[in-house]
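Sample entry was shown:

___
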Amino acid sequence: MNCPKCHQPVDAAQKYCAACGAALGGPKPWYRRPKAVVLAGQLTASVLSGAVGAMIALLLAFYVFTPGGRPLFGNSNVVVVTAAPFEERTALGRINASSLLPYKDSTFLIVDDLTDDAFYELQFFADGRKAQPLLRHSVAGLAPGMVEDFEGSTIVDVDGNRYMVAVSSLEKVEGENTEDGLVRIAVGEDGRFTGEAMSGFRAWLIANNPSLGELAGGADALDVQGLAWDPNLKVLLVGIRSATKDRKPLVLFVRVKDWSGPWTVDNLEALEPVSLAVADSGKPKGIYSLVLHPTRQVVYAVVRDSDGRSGSAELYEWYPTAGGTVKLVPDIVFHPAMRPEGLAFGTIGGRSALVIVDDNGGYAVLWTDELPVLAG
């Protein structure tokens, strides 16, 4: 007999034609003809090899070039920042380090966005290694649920007094209590911390900063991530993760009229905000951390895609008196898996260092005398 499709001779006992694969009577076989299997395999292999190739290309691009497009290898000034894990966990999971404060030599305080009433002390050996398990410091005056989702902090030295100031994200969409999100913390002679939460801070911030209504998602999209004290301008710099409509990061200027006065919104003054002119990648950019250099009037800003899920973080230099002009720091490159959200200058064993904490639960130490860009 002949195949009804290609008319080639076939054996009547065969169930399909060996030449074209056509079924020879009865139900069609469940399997694919050999040529189709080969073709499907080739297509699958091509897709997989393309995806793997693209991934390798991205990794090579990251490790070969800095964000500014300069070669990474052969450039002794470039450092790729990776994080060592804390290892400790709280009842809510890993330490989500969202900010960092210098406390004393070799000692820093970690602000955890899942801990509402305490900071964690991080101690170092002189070589920059973590010296002991994290130590919990309760903050009197605060309680769980009172001020939630701390995201920024800074040290304020004014009129002979020292305060620690922390701010929550003020993010409305997560359903947390963030209305009273600005906290002033004093350190007693016995070393204990006492905090005061400012009532109505979120509402005041929105009412006195019309620029927040111009965020890509409006004022309800407000998400604070950075906080720094500028002793020259005598203002708090509030870094916003939510990008403006032109995809730029926004910094608010908040002045406390009397630091020893009542911790109320009546004691605040709003100045003109600034949007930072970071490189436009086509994606909205936001601020994840702010820190002032200890000897220069320059602020370092960690900038990343506002969605927080894509893009490596970048470090920018910014002079608050120069408007929104910024400069990318290409010599410091964050690993793509890292989410740097806290930076603090301090000393470790008497040696100047920049310590960085990761929202994924880790830390990194950069020695300023090894990086010209961080030198005084």
